[in-house]
C-alpha cells in the first residue's frame, strides 16, 4: 500500500543551504523509490487557512517512507532545510485499492454504538 511524506512549509526561505538541500534530496529518495508528487506549490485554499507551501512525496509503502526519513543520507541534509524553513512533516499510509469511506463510517458507527 502506498505511503506518503507530507510537508507543510510555513515559509519559503531563499537561502543557499535550502538550494543545496533541494539539489541533494532526490539522491536520498532514490534508494526508497520515493518521488515527488507535489513540490512547493502554493495551494488553493477552499476551507480554513494554509499559510505556506505543500510538499508530497510518494513511496511504495510506509516502511520505505520511514526508511527514507530515518536514513543517514536524509538525516545528513535535513538541517540544511530546518535551519531556514519552519515546517510540519508527517508520514502517512495511503488507502488500499477499492477503499470506500462508507465502509469506514459503518465500522466507526458500530464501534461508537
UniProtKB/TrEMBL annotation:
Pfam families: DUF1330 (PF07045). Residues 2-95 form the DUF1330 domain. InterPro entries: Dimeric_a/b-barrel, DUF1330. This is DUF1330 domain-containing protein. It comes from Streptomyces enissocaesilis.
